[in-house]
Design goal:
Layout: H1 16-31, H2 40-43, E1 48-49, E2 56-57, H3 61-86, H4 89-105, H5 122-148, H6 159-167, H7 178-183, H8 195-199, H9 204-214, H10 219-226, H11 230-244, H12 247-260, H13 275-285, H14 290-297, H15 301-321
Antiparallel strand pairs: 1-2
Length: 359
């Protein structure tokens, strides 16, 4: 997965609100119309606090009908009004749904509309829709700032400006590393390798969250994509940032990965290992961690770790002793990596596709 946006960041949010509205509408249809004189206990979740009186009251039948009429008359126009401002049909639809839900939750605000024709109320609905844009942008900014923190020293740009700069193409002689540009890691001392390797030391969930963040997704959208809560996504992102900001921890994890790396062609030798070690190697090769393998085999994590270490050392000895009479094919020439905000010796995939211009 490329984690550099080659186009403007797409502002997309989940469809949770639209689904919630549809669920409520289905429940309302099944329940039928509520009597206008129903008491608070009968109205349940539809109770509303009036901004004028401070007392709780219900969503009356006439108010329900009017919201339905307004939606039928103006919904498409409201969506178009929002699209012109956000340039994203999905986001415009979601914000329109939020606007109708907000209106349904505050029926007292329709009190001043008495005596006015439904067809004449679009300006008021447009104002409420524009207010949803402000709410969305504020939520997005808060999510970014809570995760990313401050930018690099001397960088006065806001979070959105940093995202916009990252999303656009770089200059003709520069390629931007997404991790550095977005997370402000340019000033990290002691790490001069490719950030793709650094991301490789993260746990799968941490790596996925960082990659989606670099794509320009909001924390809310990441949670929907990962089928996780926003709280857990925030935890993954903060843990990943702690590692990425610590060169010593990156080096330690890279060394551990190298020590546990299976030699090339290990499949030819795995049958020579004891059955217990071969079983562990097979599961680790599928991407399972030591604790996962231990749970699968009913063994302790320590015993799995020890068995895997012994197996890797034995496989490396076997590979080193392998003698072949066939001439080894020359390895294919590696593509010359483009320039990056840092030197990426192995050719970082965390960069734009535009190559550096050579003089």
């Amino acid at each position: 997965m490329s984690i550099v946006a080659e186009r403007p960041v797409v502002r997309a949010v989940g469809r949770g609100l639209a689904e919630e509205i549809e669920r409520q509408e289905r429940e309302d249809d099944a329940r039928g119309p509520e009597p206008e004189g129903a008491g608070p206990n009968e109205l349940g979740p539809e109770l509303e606090v009036s901004a004028r009186t401070g007392k709780r009251r219900g969503f009356r039948g006439d108010e329900r009908e009017r919201v339905g009429r307004l939606a039928g008359l103006h919904h498409r126009r409201v969506v178009l009004y929002l699209f012109v401002r956000v340039q994203d049909w999905q986001l415009a639809e979601d914000l329109a749904q939020e606007m109708w839900l907000d209106l349904a939750m505050r029926p007292h605000e329709m009190g001043d509309w008495a005596g006015r024709e439904d067809a004449d109320l679009f300006p008021l609905l447009a104002w409420r829709a524009k207010r949803q844009i402000h709410h969305y942008l504020r939520r997005r900014m808060n999510e970014r700032e809570s995760v990313l923190g401050a930018g690099p020293a001397g960088d006065g740009r806001g979070v959105e400006q940093r995202l916009d700069a990252l999303a656009g193409p770089g200059s003709a002689d520069e390629v931007h590393c997404a991790v550095e540009a977005l997370l402000g890691l340019v000033d990290v001392e002691g790490f001069s390798e490719c950030w793709a390797r650094a991301l490789g030391v993260l746990s799968p969930r941490q790596r996925e969250a960082i990659e989606l963040l670099c794509e320009g997704m909001t924390q809310r959208a990441i949670a929907a994509r990962m089928s996780d809560s926003q709280g857990n996504v925030g935890t993954h992102l903060r843990a990943a940032l702690r590692v990425l900001r610590d060169p010593a921890e990156i080096a330690r994890r890279l060394a551990k990965q190298e020590a546990e790396r299976l030699p090339e062609g290990w499949e030819r030798f795995v049958g020579r290992l004891p059955a217990a070690q071969a079983e562990v190697v097979g599961l680790r090769a599928q991407g399972l961690s030591n604790p996962d393998v231990g749970r699968r085999l009913g063994r302790t994590t320590a015993s799995v770790y020890d068995a895997y270490g012994r197996a890797v050392r034995a496989l490396r000895r076997m590979a080193a002793q392998l003698v072949t009479d066939q001439a080894q094919e020359a390895p294919a020439a590696a593509k010359e990596p483009g320039s990056c905000a840092r030197a990426c010796a192995s050719g970082c995939y965390l960069r734009t596709a535009r190559p550096a211009v050579k003089g």
